[in-house]
Amino acid sequence: MEECKEFFDFIDIDESGSIDAEEIQRLLKVLGFEDHLSFAERIMMEANEGTSKEITWQQFYKTVNPEKKSDHTNQEIMRAFKFFAGKDSPSNKIHSEQLELVLLQCRSEREVKIIMKQLPFDHQGYLNYQDFINTYN
Q1: Is 20 strand, coil or helix?
Q2: Other CB atoms closer than 10 Å to residue 102's CB: what's the count?
Q3: What is the largest CA-CA distance in the chain?
Q4: Looking at the DSSP assignment, which residues form a beta bridge with residue 18?
Q5: Tens-digit pLDDT profile for residues 11-26
Q6: 116: CB partners within 8 A, 6+ apart
Q7: What is the DSSP letter of 16?
Q8: pTM score, two decimals?
Q9: What DSSP assignment string belongs to 31-44?
Q10: CB 60 within 8 A of CB 8
C-alpha cells in the first residue's frame, strides 16, 4: 500500500491530493504515448466511474488494487515495465535518460538525483527488467 501511495504522489504533480487528466496526460506524453489524451480519459473513466474530473487516493488504490487474492501475472508485470520504459526502449530495459525525463515532470532535480543514484543501472545506462522487479518487490 505504501508503494502505491508513493506512485500516486508521484503522479499528483500539484500535490492537490487528487490526480486529474492533465497530470496523467503529462506522464503519458513523456513516456511517448501518441494517443495520450484519449488514454488518459479512459484511465479517468475507469478509476472514478465517470463521476468526477479527478481521481482521489481511495479511487486510485481501489483501481490498481482490485479485491482479488491472486498475484499479478508475469505478463501484467512486463506490461507495466514496458509502459514505464516507453515505446522506444529496448526489450526488457529502461534507459536512465527516459526515467529521468519522467521523474523531472513530477519531482525536483534534487529528488531525481537521489532516486537515480539508488538504482542499479548498467554501464550503458539501462535498468533491466529483473532489477526493476527486485526494486519494486
Answers
A1: strand
A2: 20
A3: 47
A4: 56
A5: 888 989 888 888 888 8
A6: 96, 99, 100, 103
A7: S
A8: 0.44
A9: TT-TTHHHHHHHHH
A10: yes
CA dist., res. 84 & res. 94, Å (int)? 8
Of 134, 120, 123, nearest to 81 by C-alpha is 134
Neighbour count for residue 59 (Cβ, 10 Å): 20
As given in the structure block, the three cell numbers for residue 35 are 494517443
Going by C-beta distance under 8 Å and a sequence separation of 6 or more, which residues neighbour residue 112? 100, 103, 104
58-116 confidence digits (pLDDT tens): 788 777 766 544 466 777 777 767 777 877 778 888 888 888 887 787 788 888 887 78
Mind giving me the DSSP string for 67-112? S-SSPPPHHHHHHHHHHHH-TTSPTTEEEHHHHHHHHHTTS-HHHH
